[in-house]
Predict the structure of Switch-associated protein 70.
Amino acid sequence: VLSHNLCTVLNVPHDPVALEEHFRDDDEGPVSNQGYMPYLNKFILEKVQGNFDKVEFNRMCWTLCAKKNLSKSPLLISDEDAFKVWVIFNFLSEDKYPLIIVPEEIEYLLKKITEAMGAGWQQEQFDHYKIALNTSREGLSAWELIDLIGSGQFSKGMDRQTVSMAINEVFNELILDVIKQGYLLKKGHKRKNWMERWFVLKPNIISYYVSEDLKDKKGDIILDGNCCVEALPDKDGKKCLFLIKCLDKTFEISASDKKKKQEWIQAIQTTVNLLRAGSPPPHKEARQKRKELRQKLLAEQEELERQMKELQAANENKQRELETVRKQLEAAAARAAEEEKKRLQTQVELQDRFSLELEREKMVRQKMEEQVAQKSSELEQYLQRVRELEEMYRQLQEALEDEKQARQDEETVRKLQARLLEEETAKRAELEKWHLQQQQTIQMTEAEKQELENQRMMKEQALQVAMQQLKQLELERKEALEQYEEVKKKLETAANNTKSWKDKVAHHEGLIRLIEPGSKNPHLITNWGPAAFTEAELEERQRSWKGKKATSE
């Protein structure tokens, strides 16, 4: 089916026998791209004469690949506009696979579309986009270009119809080779009447139609190098006239205004001049020049890179040579330094050896002197030690005698102190017994006082309640006074009881004595607690004992 459609579109006779013969031995499954290309080149493309409709051929190719690759996201352009952008991409893309369109051609296409929309070109915006694109890849694929134009990034503020008309205008110029088109009035050759027609100027022909939908074609004006165009004066009520002269016919045309007349004359004259010079259409020539310029820049860049590599290689060679020379100089300097080091080392060794021998002699003589001095010092120290030991022995004898006497005195004092402590312990036990009785009495008195206090508090609370009750105020006040008198009597009774107890304690026959402030003199501390006698009493007793001892001796 693909081969038959290609042959139909390209106006090539289809040969089913050759197709069956070519793929007769291929029974392993679907034909790959590499397997189909030899048949396509040999039996179809080699037979193409060029008399086929390129738009229909492009449309068939678009039908094969659009469904698989076209973005599913909503775009600002229609499918027909996307097809035209795809055809323009094939025209402007580089001649290598995979096909991409470089940033320069993207800028050219976006400028053409922007000019066709009548908007201003945003160079700064495209420069930012170009920088972002160059950092990631060399160009865009056909589908990325369709997404870029369909996203409206460079056509903000324009509606779908304006963008579609701009794409159609660029498509007509670049693909259909339409140099200029528009409505003009044409004078008939037979009836001599003026009819409005839609004129389309191409590189070698001017076609005119009933309307701009190009469905009803009325005729062609074949252009060549012998044709010419010239302005005519106004006549027969028609203005803005110009004449197209060819070899066999002459055509009178009328424009709507002087500006369009001048544009058409200039466009037709430029086309005739290109035919005379044998030059391609302007857009194809500009594309070729841009391509040659890119190739030239690429060649210059490659040449510059090659020169840079050569310079880098030469620089590396120079660096290696300099490094070699530096290493040689460093080696020579190292050898010289090593020799100087060895000479200095030999000299130092000789000096060290001589100095060592002198030092050795000095050390031997000094050691002998030190030994003599040490022996003398040791003898002196030995004699001094003997004297110290004799003095120490004498002191030890005296200390031993003093210690014996001190032990005897200590034993006497200890016995006296033990007896005093026993007496003090007995007195302390008796005193603590009376003190405990006194504490119990005080506790009983405190308990009675607490009970009386509690009763008083209760009466005060009752008094506060009575103050709030105004009707019974006087009665409750009398009761409170009576209760207060009773409490007072009890307090007096308790106070009398306490006083009688104090009198009993004070007049007791020496069993206990009242606790009074003690002496301000410091007391002695024994193993059982504070002593019952002061330091002055102890000194007095010691003097007495010493006097008795001296009398006995």
Summary: The beta strands are 180-187, 194-202, 205-209, 217-222, 228-232, 241-245, 250-254, 523-526, 529-534. Confidence is low (pLDDT under 50) at residues 509-516. Residues 190 and 440 are 160 Å apart (CA to CA). The chain is about 65% helix and 10% strand.
